[in-house]
Write a structure and sequence with these properties.
The chain is built from no helices and 33 strands. With 493 residues, the protein is mostly beta strands. The strands form eight sheets. It has a five-stranded mixed sheet, with no helix packed on it. Strand 27 and strand 28 form a beta hairpin. The radius of gyration is 20 Å and the shape is globular.
Length: 493
């Protein structure tokens, strides 16, 4: 889910159990692009929830069958050919999807499907009408942890944080756990899940928990919450707040993501802190912050400001009435495994005078205590969206993002979009290279859900000396298959 301003029940869902349609092995051949861009492997084939009738919130609810959006991925640190991707399957117009799905491979090319049991549409799924916000991470022993959110509001107004594990690289999932659940006036949102890279069996799930009726003068409170496992996902701790927002009325956090410094074991959680006016109609202040833990998540530091959130609403530049939905307000952090340098990529309008968002990067060389000024990564003068960030083993910083460099003035019928990879050797912007890794596609073919929706995020992870990306593209002339998910292993300098 994505909450820009607090709502009484921004949700995802409805009810009735249906078994999934079986789908077979995904062909191994990468899809060759006629325009000469590197081949990508399509992860999403078929629709396991095509026959599911669960989830209609109202007559105005529209499900987009065959759509796969908002992907994330993980690579086994012991073998980069073992990859697990996760994504939303069959997006709804008013939030969430019929369910979450996964694709797994042992050779890096041939992806096999599996379903995540986070909604009633999935075989053996949890008792929630829709699911959203997929995340995945692999621990040092090969245990795969997947997380997400279950939501419903026809019988109730529940939002729940869910987690499962896989011991066979994503083929099968077990240990389905509800790490936290609430009903109105609470709303849980934007969970992520990080396996500790040096502590076997340890993983962290973090999210924001909105209270739409807090005591006192506020109309909203949205602290950060955490649950963790120390036994490989068999059990999870009770959820507890670890980032407070009570000192300033009408303040929430969003986009919590933990990265771990493998040299020291220090945890760094990044998020956006947003304060609204009294009537919640406008944002008074927004800034990205980080907190740290030196004891594996037991205690946390006071927050440190990383950068101002200067993002502006995303629209089609040639037709501002067409809203776009992307990674605004969501940080993408990473840590250099050799030096410990911390990086955070995000959308901001510092380099356009507040007109549109670009991809920006900040860094810290002192463990997150102080941060440098924003650096422009995407091309100047071109709107860019949804950055993902990773640092390869030799210190090359990699960023992926969508941009609109192919859009021509006066074109209001299509929105030509492409996915780019930028690399900075040793993190040095003067050693920046860039190349396109997707075909040019029409963003306006995407399902509409608070904007034309490819996902609030995409994924990029370190893959030894390179990186692996996962992304969403739209399909032309396919109303029953508007989007698909692709992946590729990419070399870096």
């Amino acid at each position: 889910m994505r909450v820009f301003l607090p709502l009484a029940a921004v949700g995802t869902a409805s009810l009735l159990l249906v078994t999934a349609t079986g789908i077979g092995t995904v062909p191994a051949a990468a899809e060759r692009r006629p325009d000469g861009t590197p081949p990508l492997v399509r992860v999403s084939h078929g629709d396991p929830y095509a026959k599911c009738t669960v989830g209609a919130r109202s007559p105005d609810s529209v499900v987009h069958p065959g759509t796969e959006v908002e992907p994330y991925l993980s690579v086994d640190p012991r073998d980069p050919r073992r990859v697990v991707t996760v994504f939303q399957q069959d997006r709804w117009s008013d939030g969430g999807a019929r369910g979450l799905a996964a694709g797994w491979t042992t050779d890096g090319r041939t992806f096999h499907p599996s379903t995540l049991p986070f909604s009633l549409c999935a075989p053996g799924g949890a008792d929630y009408e829709r699911a959203t916000d997929p995340w995945v991470s692999t621990g040092p022993d090969g245990t795969v942890y997947a997380g997400g959110e279950g939501v419903d509001f026809t019988k109730s107004t529940r939002t729940a944080l869910l987690a499962v594990t896989s011991r066979d690289g994503g083929r099968t999932w077990r240990n389905l756990t509800t790490t936290h659940v609430d009903e109105q006036p609470f709303f849980n949102d934007k969970p992520s899940l990080t396996a500790d890279p040096i502590r076997k069996g340890t993983a962290y799930q973090v999210w924001d928990r909105l209270d739409n009726d807090p005591p006192g003068p506020s109309s909203l409170d949205g602290p950060g919450y955490i649950s963790l496992t120390r036994d490989g996902g068999r059990t999870w701790s009770g959820a507890r707040p670890f980032v407070d927002t009570g000192a300033v009325p009408n303040t929430q956090t969003i986009g919590h993501v933990i990265v771990v410094d493998r040299r020291t074991g220090t945890l760094h959680d990044f998020f956006d802190r947003i304060t609204y006016a009294d009537d919640l109609s406008t944002v008074v202040e927004a800034r990205f912050e980080t907190v740290t833990s030196a004891d594996a998540g037991e205690t946390w530091s006071a927050p440190v400001t990383v950068a101002r959130d200067t993002s502006v609403p995303e629209v089609d530049p040639n037709d501002p009435a067409k809203a776009l939905r992307d990674g605004t307000t969501l940080p993408s952090p990473a840590v250099d495994p050799g030096s410990g340098t911390l990086y955070m990529a995000y959308e901001g309008s510092d380099f356009s005078g507040g007109k549109f968002d670009s991809v920006q990067l900040v860094r810290s060389t002192d463990g997150g205590r102080t941060w440098g000024r924003p650096e422009l990564i995407s091309p100047r003068g071109v709107p860019a969206f949804s950055p993902s960030l990773a640092v390869a083993d030799r210190g090359t910083v990699a960023l992926t993002y969508y941009d609109l460099r192919f859009l021509r003035p006066g074109n209001t019928t299509t929105l030509p979009t492409a996915y780019q990879l930028a690399t900075l050797r040793h993190g040095n912007p003067k050693l920046r290279t860039e190349r396109r890794i997707s075909r040019v596609f029409d963003w306006l073919r995407a399902p509409f859900s608070g904007g034309y929706f490819l996902g609030d995020y995409q994924g990029l992870v370190a893959d030894g000396e390179g990186v692996r990306a996962v992304l969403t593209e739209t399909d032309s002339g396919a109303p029953q298959n508007r989007t698909d998910v692709y992946t590729s292993r990419l070399r870096t300098p």
